[in-house]
Amino acid sequence: MCGIVGIVDAGGVSIQLYYALYALQHRGQESAGISTFDGTNLHKFKGNGLVADVFSPSVLSDLHGTAGIGHVRYPTTGANLPENIQPLNFQFKEHFISLAHNGNLVNTCEIRAEYEQAGQIFTTTTDTEVIAKILMDEIGRSGCVEDAVRICMRRLLGSYSVVMMFDGIIYAFRDPLGIKPFCIGKTENGYMVASESVAVDALSAKFLRDVKPGELIRIDSEGIRCTQVAVAGKRAHCIFEYIYFARADAIIDGVLVYDVRRQIGHKLFEEDPVRADSVCSVPDSGTAYAIGYAEGSGIPFVESLMKNRYMGRTFIMPTQKEREKAVRIKLNPIPAHLKNKSVVLVDDSIVRGTTSKRIIEMMREAGAREVHMRIGSPAIKAPCYLGVDMPTREELIASDKIEDEVRHSITATTLHHISLDALVEAIGFEREDLCTGCLTGCYPLPIDGEQARPCKVDFLDSTFQSRLGSFEA
Ligand code: 5GP
Ligand code: MG
What we know:
The protein is α+β, with helices and mostly antiparallel strands. Helix 9 (257-271) crosses helix 10 and helix 11 (320-330) runs parallel beside helix 13 (354-365).
């Protein structure tokens, strides 16, 4: 969970990077950073907090240059330490390098240990620095950035959408399974890459297409070049991007997230119809689902929980205690809409179960007679190792409970989760092309102690684009 952006634009990039990060704020609220290159020097600024709090007009006016990258962070690998804030910046053989990463590697420890064994030091606890190390190692050897990326991609196992600025050139690459989203846009005087199309929209830039899984994009002042570095036997787009993580107006790998959620709302009614007075969403993440449910069922959509729009996602609070407190501040029930009513309450997912339990309690206190909980994802059974903060089975309420036990524990009148089949159908990809690790406990990459269904990845030769060995991803 993170948002990244890279822009090369003759008209200057700092303001555009700022707006792009602003549009990607939902992908991480812990820290934000921007690095730019002005032809001679690297300019950088980063800090903890929201984009709007980290950057001021005067800070932005000092970020000179026509190339730059940015990052918003929610930590997965690497603690909340100031040195872990991205982009990471390096100086190497007179070159300025800046790197930002969305995703999570599953072989960080091995690679890091190897380097440490060779006497190398690390200054952060992120997996991003491991990527940087491999790249610098190879650039040092061959002097060719693109070859370094090729070699790097062979070594990395996990999810990664990476943007690297090498002096004034932006390199962007996406893991061969395309786990995390990444797309390309055309700005007024250049090109950009970003985690979600909403960042392209925010700049009134033109959405071109997604970065293909296994693809390397190079952007400089002359234009853009795309090279296929690796080809996998399947894709493994993160299903949770569609369920929760991406903004509803994003188009990810060709699919409008809003439509997926709305369609699931319809299917939630078809799978387990219920009579009720109103349909209410847990805003904002449940809203598109609730609208679909209301359409499908004919039950009126009535907002009965008001969200305070001026606070971050409660989940973003890193500790359980903070999360519990924050629910109350974030959502306020409307008693006049709830008194003696039977309500269908729609949300995208139940992770730890704290939010749902708290909300149902509040709705009952406000007079609701029945609360029928409908969830836009199947039960979350297993942790995510590939970039979403779903840490351990112990913390996942559904990991060891059947649906009725979860219902009991969150005190809902009834509870239904969408089936995996219906979810996959709504997204429109083959099931094999989605990472469903958190729902099924079966992952698209080998992970210690977990089940996996990996596929073969072929790496293409740089000059001839022919096969040059392969490995089992
Ligand atoms: P729970 O209390 O069950 O752990 O939280 C469920 C709520 O958290 C849902 O409303 C859902 O929208 C939200 N949620 C689910 N996954 C994530 C996540 O990875 N990050 C954040 N910020 N919120 C999440
Ligand atoms: Mg939510």
